[in-house]
Amino acid sequence: MNDELKDFILSAFEASLEAQLRAVRRLRQGDQALAEPRRRASLSQVDMAFDILKKARSPLHVTEILARIQSSFGVAVDRESLVSSLTKKVARGDRFLRTEKNTFGLRPDAR
């Protein structure tokens, strides 16, 4: 048996066993697992910025957006990463506008 086929078969067995183990663990938890509400997935940094700008109802400098994300969500977001993400959204016409250098607002249709 060649190594590629062997690796494929072992990967399939591994995936199957992992699924079975998750099912057994779920059954062990019983009704307790169903009673606990699922936590909502965390927001992306772009979604957090959108939420901040929506509440502000006016454009904000990235420094202010970062400060408000920190105070509202308790998350420290990297400045360059956020600016890069928002700039890409602006270029695509997706929700955000750039009103001045490092200052972002929401497009009228996104408010």
Describe the protein's architecture and organization.
- The protein has 111 residues and is mostly helical.
- Helices cover 63% and strands 10% of the residues.
- The protein has five helices and three strands, in the order H-H-H-E-H-H-E-E.
- The chain has helices spanning 3-29, 31-35, 45-56, 62-73, 79-92, and strands at residues 60-61, 96-100, 103-106.
- The mean pLDDT is 86.
Can you give the mean pLDDT?
86
Q: How would a textbook summarize the main sheet?
A: 3 strands, antiparallel
User: How far is the N terminus from the C terminus?
Assistant: 60 Å
Tally of strands: 3
* Discrete helix count: 5
Q: Structural class, from secondary structure content?
A: mainly alpha
Strand percentage: 5-15%
Shape: elongated
User: Low-confidence parts, pLDDT < 50 over ≥5 residues?
Assistant: none
Q: Strand sequence of the main sheet, in spatial order? A: 1-3-2
Radius of gyration: 22 Å
The level of helicity is 55-70%
SSE string: HHHEHHEE
Summarize the structure.
The protein has helices at residues 3-29, 31-35, 45-56, 62-73, 79-92; strands at residues 60-61, 96-100, 103-106.
What attributes characterize this protein structure?
5 helices; 111 residues; 3 strands; mainly alpha; three-stranded antiparallel sheet; elongated
Topology:
Elements: H1 3-29, H2 31-35, H3 45-56, E1 60-61, H4 62-73, H5 79-92, E2 96-100, E3 103-106
Antiparallel strand pairs: 1-3, 2-3
